Every structure is written in C-alpha cells, then in structure tokens.
Amino acid sequence: MPGRRTILMVEDELSITEPLAEALAREGFGTQVAATASEALELAARAEPDLVLLDVMLPDGSGYDVCRELRAGSSVPIIMLTARGEETDRIVGLELVADDYVVKPFSAREVVARMRAVLRRAGDRSSAPNEPIELGPVRLERARRTAALDGRQLDLTRREYDLLELLMSEAGSVVTRERLIDEVWDVNWFGSTKTLAVHVSGLRRKLGDDSSAPRFIHTVRGVGFRFAGPEELE
Q1: At residue 10, does pLDDT exceed 90?
Q2: Are the CB atoms for 196 and 186 separated by under 8 Å?
Q3: d(CA 230, CA 139)
Q4: How far is the CA of 169 from the CAs of 9, 96, 109, 219, in angstroms?
C-alpha cells in the first residue's frame, strides 16, 4: 500500500483501541482515536482520514448517526465495529453505505485484512483499476486478468494470477505471507500453510524464475515475498 494511510478509530474501549492502534502502527498505518461521536466528527473534518473504523455503541450516541453525518459530505471508507452480530444490525449499517462490518470480538489481523480490501476497492473507484501493470518483460492486463512474459501469454490459475497481481502492484516492497493468504485466499482460511509456497513455486516456474537466483519473485525469509522493482528489471 503506497504511502502512510491515516485511520480514524472511533471506539471508547481502551482494551480495544490500544492494542489495535499498536497493530495498525506495525502494519504502517497512522491512527487517530476518538472516544465519542462528537469527537469523531471533529477529528474526521480535521484529519481527513483514509478510512474510519466506527463502533456502533458510543457514549454520546450511535455510530449509525456518525456514519450518516460522514456520508452526508464524504466518501471516506467506513468499517462498522459492533458486538452485535444480528443480521438486522448488519443491514442497517450497510444501508447507511458502510463499506464493511466486523463483529466483536475480532483479531487485529482480521481488521487489517478487511481494511486493506476496503482501501483497495476505494482506490479502484477513484483511479484506473484496469490499467495494465508492466514490469520488465512481464505485463499484466488487469481488465482481462491475463499475464504475459516477453509477449507470450502465461497459463495461470486464478490463485496464481491473484498472487502475481498483488506482488506486482507492490513491486519493490515485501508483501507478508499473512497478507497474501488474507487477500488471495481469505482471512478465515485454515488450509495448509504450504499452499502459498506451492502456488509461488508454480508461478515462478511459469515465469521461468529460479528460486536460488530469482529475477522476479524474491523470498524474504520469515516475512514473505517481493516482486522485483522496475529498476531491478531494466
């Protein structure tokens, strides 16, 4: 994710805000915290956050009212946080044009994965999501979900394409194993940890890459994978 994104967390429970803010900082996000509805609206106007994590139950009002106020003058992505998981609550939140809905208790990993997905969709709405990505001899046609090496089409599975798109969109930067699993599979996916390695191996083979001396996909031990930056492929 390019740049440092600012997250407005609207939540009055310190047992949630403190560990979650620390987790977000580790993931490269800046966090502003508001404990009340009025403080949330004030901070949102001043800080212009990239995304709002909005608790439904606040000391001075409802998060739904805050959502309405924000939506009246902004398209900032909003993820509702609530301890109530009933379908009616979910419908109310989403009808207010919230972008997603997370039920407590939740893990920081789940929230981060959902945030990244929402931010990516928001970026797609404001930019050109179908614009091709070209790095050295590898060209990705996102509108058609195809990839080519030196002009030759690659026969990729759906997962291999998704992996390649995420890695190439973050070219030059490390993408963690957890993020790859969360975004290409699912945050609640419980399959074998070897699945990612198998798919990366298959992708490397189709790119003609050598894992011992990679040109395109580099392994960062204990962390994840990195697709070579433009300057490395000149």
Answers
A1: yes
A2: no
A3: 12
A4: 27, 31, 21, 17
How many angstroms separate the CA atoms of 59 and 65, rounded?
13
| E strands present in the chain | 6-10, 30-34, 51-55, 57-58, 61-62, 78-82, 100-103, 133-135, 138-141, 146-149, 152-153, 174-176, 217-220, 224-227
Tokens of 152: 């030759």
Q: Tens digits of per-residue pLDDT, 96-135?
A: 668 888 888 888 888 988 888 888 777 654 445 578 899 9
Q: Distance between CA 209 and CA 193 in Å, rounded?
A: 22
Question: In which residue are the tokens 């419980």 written?
Answer: 190
Report the residue count for the chain: 234
What dihedral angle (degrees, nearest 10) is formed by the CA atoms of 25, 28, 34, 38? 180
d(CA 63, CA 67): 6
How far is the C-alpha of 195 from the C-alpha of 175, rounded, in Å? 16
pLDDT of residue 233: 87
> Is the pLDDT at 231 greater than 60, yes or no?
yes
- Longest Cα–Cα distance in the chain: 60
Confidence (pLDDT) at 212 = 86
What gap in Å lies between CA 48 and CA 216, rounded to an integer? 37
Q: 3-state class of 166 per DSSP?
A: helix
* DSSP-derived pairing of the beta strands 30-34 and 6-10: parallel
Can you list the positions of beta strands (E) in 26-185? 30-34, 51-55, 57-58, 61-62, 78-82, 100-103, 133-135, 138-141, 146-149, 152-153, 174-176
